[in-house]
Design brief:
- By secondary structure, the protein is α+β, with helices and mostly antiparallel strands.
- Among the domains are: about 180 residues, Alpha-Beta Plaits; about 50 residues, no CATH class.
- It contains 9 helices and 12 strands.
């Protein structure tokens, strides 16, 4: 037989054809998902390929916002708004807290959880609180107790005054349940993210998902967080939390007024932190913790405005910053009268 078989295509051509087929298949799958009735599936497909938020164009940010609003609205059964308002010119947010006024009621903690859609489960890892209120015991140094240590009568090893509060116990409790507040002989010191000018957490992030915004707050792009927790180890203020489990956020308790870099619902395996309620402060409102404080111990304002409440406090009060020796330059100030 003299009939000739058709020539076999080269291996390179086969691979090329196979590659084109794979790309076409993926594009076709994406199109089908986008046209499906499963809102969550179509949105997550697009989210998977979106870039880092601060590198997006305005058009890409608008698309990302619309995707999230569709998904959250379908997931929580209510109209959800995802704000993308950016830093305002001439604004540098600052915070001040009067440590002598704080009564340790922890209303700020609860208001923060409700406002910022934090996980509120009961199992280990399901409860997240950005604010911690430390309860510290008041005391005094007593010369008569200087030899009351261990071994008995020698005052060594643990030292005198060791068994009674001396000064203020800095290793404060943050889970306390008194019958009434303020308690006698107790001082309270709330802590949260200090929104540092030179944040150590930003320096160590391997994917640059956390960064400082122009108006002050340090934020997180949740879609790019890989959950390595390096930022948590670098933060000297214990201000960051990680979602070890899927966040517990009941539909009826979800706050639908959100910000892309703020209080929008988080995913399992991402880190989160205080951002001074961007969904509020970039609309001219106070953070939730400031509004709810019953004694007015918390103050918030623009550090670049010399007449703002925070600026006047810095000019007239006794002010200190926590761990100032680390040169993180917090924009969270403590003061007392």
């Amino acid at each position: 037989m003299n009939s000739q078989l058709p020539p076999k295509p080269a291996r390179r051509n086969l691979l090329k054809a196979g590659g084109m087929l794979s790309i076409s298949s993926l594009m076709g799958t994406g199109a089908l998902m986008a046209q499906s009735g499963d809102v969550k599936a179509s949105v997550e497909w697009a989210e998977h390929f979106q870039g880092n938020y601060r590198l997006m164009t305005d058009a890409e940010k608008a698309e990302a916002r619309a995707r999230l609003e569709r998904r959250y609205s379908a997931e929580y059964g209510k109209k959800v708004n995802v704000d993308t308002t950016g830093p305002q010119p001439g604004v540098l947010m600052g915070y001040a807290l009067n440590v002598r006024k704080c009564i340790g009621c922890r209303r700020c903690v609860k208001a923060c959880v409700e406002e910022n859609n934090q996980s509120r489960g009961e199992k280990p890892g399901e409860r997240i609180e950005w604010i911690q209120v430390l309860r510290m015991e008041r005391g005094e140094f007593d010369a008569e107790k200087m030899d009351k240590g261990y071994p008995e009568g020698l005052g060594i090893q643990v030292g005198g005054n060791a068994y009674t509060p001396a000064g203020q116990v800095l290793e404060g409790q943050y889970h306390y349940e008194p019958k009434a507040v303020p308690e006698k002989d107790a001082t309270y010191m709330p802590i949260a993210c200090m929104q540092c000018e030179k944040p150590p957490c930003v320096k160590v992030c391997p994917v640059r998902t956390t960064y400082r915004e122009a108006d002050g707050p340090v934020v997180i792009d949740y879609n790019w967080c890989i959950g390595c927790r390096m930022c948590m180890g670098a933060c000297p203020y214990w201000a960051r939390r990680i979602n070890l489990t899927t966040p517990v956020l009941p539909k009826e308790e979800m706050n639908p007024v959100t910000h892309y870099l703020g209080n929008r619902p988080r995913m399992r395996g991402v880190v989160e932190k205080c951002h001074w309620c961007l969904q509020r402060t970039r609309q001219g409102r106070y953070p939730a913790c400031v509004e709810v404080c019953p004694v007015g111990a918390r103050k918030f304002g623009n550090l670049l405005d010399p007449q703002s409440e925070v600026s006047l406090i810095l000019a007239r009060k006794n002010v200190f910053r926590l761990k100032a020796e680390l040169n993180t330059f917090p924009k969270f100030f403590y003061f007392y009268d």
